[in-house]
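Forgive a beginner's question, but might I ask you for the amino acids of a protein and the tokens describing how it folds?
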Amino acid sequence: MDALTVERLAEENYRHQGTAGVSADGRALGFRPAFLDQATGIVFPSRYADGRLAPFHVLDGLPRPLVATLHGDGKVVSVKASVIAGFVRGGRFYTRAQAARAAGET
């Protein structure tokens, strides 16, 4: 799998639009945007670069060891291919598809 990029996040949002697999639609059901590093099993809440929790998927707040490419201005361009976007609810990580299924939308 390729590194996770902002463009790929946008593609995933498009694919899951209208379901709990998108931050705006899953929020009311308790889903909070997060990332899972499949290599370590560690889940990271989505955060802005300054550490504040973000209401949608933001790459800039991920720990530097996960970053694959930085732009000249310091913004994260991509993160390791082992990182996937999803959600946390009730202490459990859900992929976008799992969140949609959990919401009864598939």
Observations:
- The chain has three helices and seven strands.
- The mean pLDDT is 93.
- Residues 19 and 26 are 7 Å apart (CA to CA).
